[in-house]
Design goal:
The protein is an all-beta fold. The protein contains no helices and 19 strands.
Length: about 220
C-alpha cells in the first residue's frame, strides 16, 4: 500500500474458483421409452454450483452412464460433469404386440367338410407398441377352428401374442345328392365265375352345393 512516500504490506488468501456440485436443471424432453431404445438427452441442462457461490447452466459437455435402455421399469441415469454427478429417471416400457392383420392368405382356401385347416403360406403383419412393424410373421400363431365342419364360408380366427384377427375359407359339403355313370368299366364281357373288374369305371357325383366331381374309387 503506497501513501505519499511510504508503503506497507498486508496479505490476502486467493482461492481458485472450483466446481462444488451439479444438479439437473431441466430433464430431457423425452423421458418415456421402449426396451431397446437409445437414450435421447436433447433438452437436458445442468446447473453448476461453484465454491464462490456462483452458478452456471450448461447443456453439453456431460456424460451419461446409460445409452441403451434394456429393461422395462424406471431407469436411473447418472450424469457426470467434471467429476460431479447428478441423476434423473426415465420410464421404459416393454415392447408388446398392439395389432395383427393377415398379410398373406394360406395357399389352400377351399376345403371339404371334415378337412383339417392347412396354414401353409399364412403370414401376419404384426404392429408393436413402439411403432415397429413386421409384415411377414409366418409362425408362432394359432388358428381356430382346426377341423372345418361348417359348410359354406368358414371364419378362421388367428391369435398371436394375445391379439387376434380373422380370415375366411370355403368349405364344400360332402353330401352326395346324385350319381351317374360317366364311363363304363373296360371289361363288360365275362364268363360265369369270373371276378368283376372295375378298371375304367368312373362316376359323376353331384353334391348338395351343386358341385360335381368325377369319382374313380370308393
Amino acid at each position: 500500500v503506497y501513501y505519499e512516500d511510504c508503503q506497507a504490506e498486508f496479505t490476502v488468501e486467493v482461492t481458485s474458483v472450483e466446481l462444488t456440485g451439479i444438479t439437473i436443471k431441466t430433464k430431457p424432453f423425452k423421458t418415456d421409452y421402449f426396451v431397446g431404445d437409445t437414450l435421447d438427452t436433447y433438452g437436458l441442462s445442468l446447473q453448476l454450483t461453484y465454491n464462490d457461490g456462483s452458478t452456471h447452466t450448461v447443456d453439453n459437455g456431460y456424460d451419461c452412464d446409460v445409452i441403451y435402455l434394456r429393461e422395462a421399469g424406471t431407469e436411473t441415469v447418472t450424469v457426470t460433469y467434471e467429476g460431479k454427478k447428478a441423476t434423473f429417471t426415465v420410464t421404459v416400457q416393454a415392447v408388446a404386440v398392439s395389432k395383427i392383420t393377415v398379410s398373406n392368405m394360406p395357399y389352400q382356401t377351399e376345403y371339404r367338410m371334415g378337412d383339417t385347416l392347412n396354414t401353409e403360406g399364412l403370414m401376419l403383419s404384426v404392429t408393436y407398441t413402439n411403432g415397429d412393424e413386421d409384415p411377414w410373421v409366418s409362425s408362432g400363431f394359432t388358428c381356430s377352428p382346426v377341423t372345418l365342419n361348417t359348410a359354406g364360408t368358414q371364419t378362421i380366427t388367428v391369435t398371436y401374442a394375445g391379439k387376434s384377427t380373422t380370415f375366411t375359407v370355403t368349405v364344400l359339403t360332402t353330401v352326395v345328392t346324385e350319381i351317374a355313370i360317366s364311363s363304363n368299366p373296360d371289361y363288360l364281357e365275362y364268363n360265369i365265375g369270373d371276378k368283376l373288374n372295375l378298371d375304367g369305371l368312373s362316376l359323376e357325383a353331384k353334391f348338395a352345393d351343386n358341385r360335381t366331381e368325377e369319382i374313380t374309387e370308393g
